[in-house]
C-alpha cells in the first residue's frame, strides 16, 4: 500500500524511481539518535544532521558540494563539472569531519549529466544544475539519507533556508574541516530583482541572504534546504553563484530545484529512494 508521499511522487512523475521498502529510511530526515547528538553554539552543524550532504573532491581538495537524491545519484551544480574532468573527482558520503574518514563511503563518478540549457557568463551561470551518478550505489543508514525534492513549481518565499558545506569560511580563507551551516532568508523574486544582481537574474534562479552569512567558494553545488512542517527537509535550491561572500549588496543565487523536477526524474531512473 502506497504512502501519501509515494502517491505524490507518482503523480508528479517519479514512478521511474524505485522506492526502498522495509527500511527506516526517510528522505530529508536524519535519525532521532543522530539528531540528539547536538553541539551548541557557532555555525558548526551537528554531526550527520544533514546526512544527504556530500563533498566532491578534486585531486584530494574540496571542489563542490552536492546532495544524495537516490542511492546512486548526486544533485549538484552544472558549473562543478563543465570545465573539470569528473574522472579526477571523488565523492565522500556520510562525512562530517575531513580529518575523520572512518565509516565514510568513498565513490568515484561514472557519469555526469549537465542540464542541456546550461550557459555561463563571467558573472553568472544559468540552468546551473547537474546529476552525477556514482560508480557503486551506497546503502542508506543513519549517516546516509537522501534529501526530499520539492513539488514542481513549489515556492519558498520568505522561508528560512539552511545552507551546509565544507567550503571556504571567507573569501581569502581555506575550506572548513567540519560541516558548517548557515540560515538565510529566501527572498521573493521581486526583492531578488531589486538587488544589484537584477540584470543577471533569470526566473529559474532564487536569492537568499542574511547579514554576514552566505555560501562561499567550495560550497557550490551544495543544497539550500527548507524544513517543512511535517518534520523533514526538502532541497529548495542548489548553490550556484554570487559576487563575493556575504556582501549585503549581492544576495547568494541558487538554482530553483522545483523548476527541474521532470528533468531530475528523467535522469535518475533506477535509483532507489526512501518509501516514506
Mean pLDDT: 80
- Specify the overall morphology: globular
| Helix and strand run | HEHEEEHEEEEEEEEHEEEEHE
Helix content range: under 10%
Q: How many E strands? A: 17
**Strand arrangement, major sheet:** 6-5-2-3-4-10-7
Radius of gyration from the alpha-carbon trace, in angstroms: 17 Å
Distance between the termini: 12 Å
Portion of residues in beta strands equals: 25-35%
Major β-sheet profile: 7 strands, antiparallel
Q: Given the structure, what is the number of helices? A: 5
Low-confidence stretches: 1-23, 36-42
Structural class: mainly beta
Task: For this entry, give a set of tags.
mainly beta, 276 residues, 17 strands, six-stranded antiparallel barrel, 30% strand, seven-stranded antiparallel beta sheet, disordered N terminus
Task: Walk me through what this model shows.
- With 276 residues, this protein is mainly beta.
- The protein contains five helices and 17 strands.
- The strands form four sheets. Strands 6-5-2-3-4-10-7 form a seven-stranded antiparallel β-sheet.
- The longest helix is centred in the first third of the chain and has 8 residues, at 4-11.
- It is globular and about 45 Å long.
- The termini are close together.
Structure in a nutshell:
This is Trypsin-1-like. Helix content is 10%, strand content 30%.
Helix-strand layout with pairing:
Blueprint: H1 4-11, E1 18-20, H2 32-35, E2 53-58, E3 61-68, E4 73-76, H3 79-82, E5 89-93, E6 105-107, E7 109-114, E8 119-120, E9 125-126, E10 130-134, E11 160-165, E12 180-186, H4 189-193, E13 205-209, E14 223-227, E15 233-241, E16 252-256, H5 261-266, E17 272-274
Parallel strand pairs: 1-17
Antiparallel strand pairs: 2-3, 2-5, 3-4, 4-10, 5-6, 7-10, 8-9, 11-12, 11-14, 12-13, 13-16, 14-15, 15-16
Amino acid at each position: 500500500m502506497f504512502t501519501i508521499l509515494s502517491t505524490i511522487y507518482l503523480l508528479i512523475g517519479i514512478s521511474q524511481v524505485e522506492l526502498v521498502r522495509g527500511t527506516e529510511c526517510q528522505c530529508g530526515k536524519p535519525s532521532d539518535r543522530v539528531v540528539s547528538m547536538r553541539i551548541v553554539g557557532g555555525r558548526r552543524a551537528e554531526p550527520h544532521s544533514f546526512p544527504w550532504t556530500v563533498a566532491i573532491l578534486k585531486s584530494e581538495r574540496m571542489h563542490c558540494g552536492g546532495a544524495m537524491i537516490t542511492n546512486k545519484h548526486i544533485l549538484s551544480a552544472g558549473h562543478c563539472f563543465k570545465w573539470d574532468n569528473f574522472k579526477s573527482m571523488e565523492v565522500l558520503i556520510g562525512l562530517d569531519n575531513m580529518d575523520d574518514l572512518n565509516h565514510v563511503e568513498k565513490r568515484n563518478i561514472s557519469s555526469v549529466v549537465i542540464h542541456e540549457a546550461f550557459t555561463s557568463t563571467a558573472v553568472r551561470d544559468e540552468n546551473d544544475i547537474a546529476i552525477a551518478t556514482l560508480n557503486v550505489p551506497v546503502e542508506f543508514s543513519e549517516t546516509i539519507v537522501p534529501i526530499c525534492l520539492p513539488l514542481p513549481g513549489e515556492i519558498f518565499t520568505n522561508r528560512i533556508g539552511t545552507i551546509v558545506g565544507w567550503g571556504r569560511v571567507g573569501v581569502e580563507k581555506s575550506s572548513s574541516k567540519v560541516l558548517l551551516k548557515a540560515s538565510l532568508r529566501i527572498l521573493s523574486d521581486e526583492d531578488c530583482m531589486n538587488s544589484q544582481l537584477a540584470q543577471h537574474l533569470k526566473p529559474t534562479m532564487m536569492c537568499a541572504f542574511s547579514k554576514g552569512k552566505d555560501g562561499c567558494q567550495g560550497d557550490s553545488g551544495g543544497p539550500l534546504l527548507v524544513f517543512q512542517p511535517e518534520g523533514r527537509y526538502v532541497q529548495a535550491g542548489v548553490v550556484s553563484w554570487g559576487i563575493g561572500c556575504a556582501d549585503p549588496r549581492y544576495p547568494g543565487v541558487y538554482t530553483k530545484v522545483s523548476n527541474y523536477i521532470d528533468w531530475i526524474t528523467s535522469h535518475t531512473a533506477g535509483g532507489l529512494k526512501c518509501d516514506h
